[in-house]
Design goal:
- The structure holds two protein chains of two kinds.
- By secondary structure, chain A is of the alpha/beta class.
- Chain A folds into two domains: about 180 residues, Periplasmic binding protein-like II (D-Maltodextrin-Binding Protein, domain 2, 3-Layer(aba) Sandwich), CATH 3.40.190; about 140 residues, D-Maltodextrin-Binding Protein, domain 2 (3-Layer(aba) Sandwich).
- Chain A is built from 13 helices and ten strands.
- In chain A, strands 1, 2, 3, 4, 5, 6, 7, 8, 9 and 10 form a ten-stranded mixed beta sheet that branches.
- In chain A, helix 2 crosses helix 11 and helix 7 crosses helix 13.
- The N and C termini of chain A lie far apart (about 55 Å).
- Chain B is mainly alpha-helical.
- Chain B has a domain of about 240 residues: MetI-like (MetI-like fold, Orthogonal Bundle), CATH 1.10.3720.10.
- Chain B has 24 helices and no strands.
- In chain B, helix 4 crosses helix 14.
- The longest helix of chain B has about 35 residues.
- Classes of the chains: A alpha/beta, B mainly alpha.
- Chains A and B meet through helix 1, strand 2, helix 4, helix 5 and strand 6 of A and helix 11, helix 12, helix 15 and helix 23 of B.
């Protein structure tokens, strides 16, 4: 095959893939009158910007695509970043009166409360919120924010590097000296989930836990998804991880596994809201309805993640929350301690 | 960048235009240029200093921000760490750069052409990509070097770890040393062989001559560029973000991002914290100008003489080996790893047929809309900033060189002033001045373009001033005597004659602007995407394969543009510091 032949083949291949990617459209969805009205209004706005730190970028992109598949004509500009950065950018936008965010998804409760205090949240009651699992309804702040994700945080290990009889069993095993230089955690100054985890550990075991952990010289990533990559690559053997990412990698045949700590898996509840000055409020409302819809719960379960609705099927990966010991950190505790532990963490770990 | 501040000191002798010949529009041009410079430079810096003394809520005068910025030993430690890092980076960069510059400029070392190319590669490749290359190579457990070591020796230990002070310094130095190389190289080219010959005649061998005669002559160039390198390295954001956090070596830029990242933003504290950086820079640049002024004197005497190549004999192979090691460590190895990762399914598996994939590139170029936008935005912002900076600088340089207006010196001073402002500090100043109403520029690309124009104006000014100095005013006078106006002369005579110089200057701005991170990181809005910031975001998630593919796309585009630059502006466009 000559140069031209190769080029033609390449062009055909690329074209072909493009076709495959674009033919998935035109789905049908059962819409209530309210949602139908929102959809009509959203179509006029054509797009929305969704800033999220609730999942990795790939999954968030899939969610955005699923939304546009169900609601053709409304596209989602997805931006995945860390909880800290998204808040920083939104507050900067608010200061300069140039808000570009329509839907805002985070695990950082402090930010939610701060935004509410600043009257920066659009008041909206999604009708689909009624279908959420009862335990999750408590996370919602009626009219302000609603749960759109749960993320259990557990221990992840590299199964090639950690023999079965050496596996950690509970959180304190992370500071076992045998893992010196082999642990990965996230930085609370960059990641909200890491912050909640640090507070949870302090609540369970006192700050002593962090002092001991620091002796093990953990690698400190800017996000907790980074920890998963560190055990995937074998850069570290054990880590504090969001289980979703680990389960997904495990299902693809990667040598990683979730250990549900005997002293309890920490469950983080993530919420979404619409900023008061969102430029595409109707598209944003439609997106909020979608995040709490039956369709989205089915999509979530099909992706192996934990669905939010009571009427959802079981996830294809991992276990339902009822199958293992877990706990949540009360919002009040998180709110009153987050700034203190950030500083304390920096003092203990020196960064 | 390769800026020589000596362009400031000297002005053309010709071009005497009587004051009477001046007419109003030129005056207006002066006012307009001055207003633009105030907007770009004076206002952000003033806002930075003022807000450091302002109470966050009330705006009243206060020293609280300073108290807060230096309240913790950790904050002061970060300042001290930064100075220590800067000094170590400079020392290592000199070790890399000076022998190379000498060997390429003045000896018969083989592979000089390759080294010129490698230096060009160094210029194109942004520091954060090289840092990622080194993370893949020298990660303590999964890095390729350690894995290879374990595989070869069976020893489970590690031999390198990029997440250390040494790793940080090494990666920094390998990204900034080419600046010292460029300055020293051109100094070597100006040193007269006659002086070296005298030493030879008096019985000194080549090495002795080099140390006793040549090096003292180029010492000012080394010192001058070392100071600039120091300033650039303490203000670099990407490498510390990637390496010093895991290495737990806090530095100023990380501390600044902490103040910026707090809820609510501690802009005023960040401003207060960045003042020492500004002061250090100003003092060191003052020092550098003194040093360079001396250099100008020494090399002027050397200019007329002939420069001869030193025959190294067997030593040329030693030199060659050294040059290859430096090129390998600073450029070839990290770039190679990056390309391998870009073509890998899983980077840790390394070079294996079954691991080869084009999927990452397909994803970056066709599927991932964010990357597509980022590539377009980075290139557009770079091009816009380079174009405006060159036009602005050309106007100022013309007025200054032709002495068209009184107080033109003030314009040239302002045009060179951003040089003393570290990129990250500039960003804080811009944020303080233009993010809030009435300007409310935050969130769009305009604030990035404006900040980049400011950041690279000194480069543009130096290039333009050098170009204009080379054109004799007679040609413009001819136009004027035939009845053409000043603007006609500029458009039809000066601009065409300057085309090549200006294009070279344009590229010198465009390339760093298209990959800029240190200024962009605080000015980027959620909707603006730049390749540099996206790369950092992806590294946060450990998506090294995608990130590597994105980095490679950027590198290839920039390399093509530089190649075009070669074709249009000539081979030496990067190394030529004075077009006279």
């Amino acid at each position: 095959m000559g140069m031209r032949g190769i080029a033609a083949a390449l062009a055909a291949a690329i074209f072909g893939m493009g076709l495959v990617a674009s033919t998935g459209a035109s789905a049908q969805v059962q819409m209530s009158d309210g949602v139908k009205a929102l959809y009509e209004a959203a179509k006029k706005e054509r797009e929305l910007t969704w800033v999220t730190s609730q999942s990795n970028a790939e999954y968030a992109e899939d969610v955005a695509k699923d939304f546009s598949r169900l609601y053709p004509g409304v596209t989602v500009n997805m931006i995945r970043t860390t909880g800290q950065v998204q808040f920083q950018r939104l507050t900067q936008e608010m200061k300069s009166n140039t808000v570009s965010v329509d839907a805002y998804s985070t695990y950082e409760e402090t930010h939610l409360v701060e935004l509410k205090k600043q009257n920066a949240i659009l008041n909206f009651k999604p009708e689909n919120a009624a279908g959420l699992a009862d335990s999750l309804k408590q996370i919602a702040e009626e009219g302000y924010w609603y749960p759109t994700a749960v993320s259990p945080v557990a221990i992840g290990i590299n199964t090639k590097l950690v023999p079965a009889d050496q596996e950690p069993k509970s959180w304190p095993d992370l500071y076992d000296p045998k893992w010196k230089g082999q642990v990965a955690i996230g930085h609370p100054g960059f990641s909200g989930s890491a912050g909640v985890w640090v507070m949870a550990m302090e609540k369970l075991y006192g700050w002593d836990y962090m002092e001991k952990l620091a002796k093990n010289e953990p690698q400190i990533g800017r996000s907790i998804v980074d920890s998963v990559n560190l055990i995937l690559s074998g850069e570290r053997k054990v880590a504090m991880v969001p289980i979703a990412t680990v389960l997904e990698s495990e299902s693809k045949g990667q040598p990683v596994k979730v250990i549900y700590p005997a002293d309890g898996t920490l469950v983080l509840g993530g919420s979404s809201l619409i900023p008061a000055k969102a430029p595409h409020p109707n598209a944003a409302k439609l997106f909020m309805e979608y995040l709490m819809s039956k369709e989205h719960s089915e999509f979530t379960a099909g992706q192996g993640r934990i669905p939010l609705r009571a009427d959802a099927p079981k996830p294809t990966l991992g276990m339902p929350l009822s199958a293992y010991k877990n706990f949540v950190l009360p919002t009040e505790h998180a709110l009153s301690n987050v700034n203190r532990i950030k500083e304390k963490f920096r003092d203990t770990f020196g960064i | 960048m390769n800026v020589s501040t000596d362009a400031l000191g000297t002005t053309a002798s010709g071009g005497r235009v009587s004051r009477l010949a001046m007419f109003q529009p030129v005056m207006l041009v002066w006012v307009a240029l001055a207003a633009i410079l105030v907007f770009l430079i004076v206002a952000p810096m003033e806002e930075l200093v003022v807000s450091s003394f302002q109470h966050a809520d009330t705006g009243d005068f206060t020293l609280e921000n300073y108290a807060a910025a230096y309240s913790k030993p950790r904050y002061i430690q970060a300042l001290w760490n930064t100075l220590k890092m800067g000094a170590a980076v400079v020392a290592l960069a000199i070790v890399f750069a000076v022998p190379l510059a000498w060997a390429v400029a003045r000896t018969d070392m083989p592979g000089r052409g390759f080294m010129r190319l490698a230096m060009l590669g160094s210029f194109i490749s942004p520091p954060y990509l090289s840092a990622i290359g080194w993370i893949l190579l020298a990660g303590p457990n999964a890095g390729w070097i350690n894995k290879a070591w374990q595989w070869v020796t069976g020893d489970p230990g590690r031999i390198v770890n990029v997440f250390t002070f040494e790793g940080l310094v090494f990666v920094m130095a390998s990204n900034v040393f080419f600046l010292i190389y460029i300055f020293t190289h051109s100094a070597f080219e100006m040193v007269n062989s006659e002086m070296e010959d005298s030493a030879n005649i008096l019985g000194a061998g080549p090495l002795r001559t080099a140390f006793k005669v040549t090096f003292p002559l180029i010492l000012p160039a080394i010192l001058g560029s070392a100071i600039i390198t120091f300033l650039i390295s303490i203000a670099l954001y990407g490498v510390p973000a990637l390496i010093s956090i895991p290495a737990r070596y806090p530095v100023v830029v990380i501390q600044l991002s902490e103040f910026f990242g707090n809820t609510p933003i501690q802009l005023e504290v960040a401003a207060a914290y960045s003042i020492p950086l500004l002061l250090i820079t100003a003092v060191l640049l003052g020092l550098q100008r003194l040093v360079l002024r001396r250099r100008t004197h020494t090399t002027v005497t050397g200019k007329g003489g002939e420069r001869r190549i030193v025959k190294l004999g067997a030593w040329r192979w030693v030199m060659f080996a050294y040059a290859m090691i430096v090129a390998l460590l600073t450029l070839v190895a990290p770039t190679f790893v990056l390309f391998v990762a870009a073509f890998s399914k899983v980077w840790t598996r390394g070079l294996e047929w079954s691991n080869l994939t084009f999927r990452n590139f397909y994803y970056i170029v066709f599927e991932h809309s964010t990357s597509q936008q980022a590539i377009v935005t980075s290139l557009t912002v770079g091009a816009a900033a380079a174009s405006v900076a060159i036009i602005l600088a050309l106007g100022i340089a013309y007025i200054v060189q032709r002495r068209l207006l009184p107080f033109a010196g003030a314009l040239s001073f302002l045009a060179m002033a951003p040089f003393v402002v570290p990129g990250i500090v500039l960003a804080i100043g811009f944020f303080a001045a233009y993010a809030p109403p009435p300007f409310a520029l935050y969130g769009g690309v305009s604030i990035l373009i404006l900040a980049f124009i400011t950041r690279f104006l000194p480069v543009a000014y130096t290039a333009s001033a050098a170009g204009i100095r080379a054109i004799h005013p007679e040609m413009e006078e001819a136009v004027r005597s035939l009845g053409g106006g000043r603007l006609t002369a500029v458009r039809h005579v000066v601009a065409p004659l300057l085309k090549r110089t200006l294009f070279a200057g344009w590229l010198l701005i465009f390339i760093p602007a298209a990959q800029e991170l240190s200024t962009a990181i605080f000015l980027i809005g959620p909707k603006t995407r730049l390749v540099s910031v996206l790369v950092l975001d992806m590294s946060e998630e450990g998506r090294y394969e995608h990130l590597a593919a994105l980095g490679c796309v950027l590198l290839v585009i920039l390399a093509l543009l530089v190649w075009a630059g070669f074709k249009i502006a000539g081979r030496d466009f990067m190394l030529r510091r004075d077009a006279s």
